[in-house]
Amino acid sequence: MTLRFEQPAYHHETAFIAALRDFERAGEWVADEYYRQKRDFCAFVDALRMAETHPRPHHVPESFFWLFDDDTWVGAVSLRHELDEVLAEFGGHISYEVRPSLRRRGFGLMLCRFILRQAQQRGMSAVLITCDEDNIGSQKIIEACGGVLQDVHASVWYKRPVRRYWITLTSGAS
Predict the structure, then answer these.
(1) 3-class DSSP state for residue 81?
(2) What is the tens place of the pLDDT at every residue in 51-109?
(3) Where are the beta strands (DSSP E) in 26-171?
(4) Which of 5, 86, 129, 134 has the maximal Cβ count within 10 Å?
(5) Residue 171 — pLDDT band, cuts 50, 70, 90?
(6) With left for phi above 0 and alpha for psi between -120 and 50, is residue 70 left, alpha or beta?
(7) For residue 173, is it within any domain?
(8) Which residues form the domain of 94?
(9) pTM, whole model, 2 decimals?
(10) What is the DSSP secondary-structure string of 31-68?
(11) 174 within some domain
(12) Alpha carbons 6 and 64: distance in angstroms, whole number
């Protein structure tokens, strides 16, 4: 097993499509941008890369990373560099997902710890991370990374109850 983080790249297409099929079989919707680009993988990768410095209108700058085990796409994590009104309610600074067939193996914790180091390197002192109230796996990951529950609420934009956590970043953070 050779685990590595990489930013999205064109040569990841086969691994990404295999993971996308895994999510679809599980009845889960991910990769909105991929569908927005009409399933053009190169345009999708370009959009993810551009999001860091030239985000789409009404979006904040965001950095994307993918986790691989050898040639297998394991999961994705992103860091939003700032919060807007919507992200402050639901979404927060961090988003991550692990492909369904590889869950419950510690990859979610690995993704979260990796992106916390990225946030720290960007000079961020704290990050907001959210999850659905019924997502016990994410709750455990967030709390293992030092997440402190701020509240549980249903936002204007997302009607389901959401748990909002803050993680303070220090020199010794996760």
Answers:
(1) coil
(2) 999 999 999 999 999 999 999 999 999 999 999 998 998 899 999 999 999 999 999 99
(3) 62-69, 72-80, 94-98, 126-132, 148-153, 162-168
(4) 129
(5) low
(6) left
(7) no
(8) 3-168
(9) 0.92
(10) -HHHHHTTT-HHHHHHHHHHTTTSPPTT---EEEEEEE
(11) no
(12) 9
For residue 73, what are its two tokens? 């796409």
Q: What percent of the chain is modeled with pLDDT above 70?
A: 94
- Nearest to 69, CA basis, from 18, 117, 119: 18
Q: What is the helix, strand, coil percentage profile of the chain, to 5?
A: 35, 25, 35
Tokens encoding 150: 């701020």
Domain CATH code at residue 33: 3.40.630.30
| Cβ-proximal residues to 91 (8 Å cutoff; 6+ apart), any chain | 80, 130
Q: What are the phi and psi torsion angles at 65 (to 5°)?
A: -140, 145
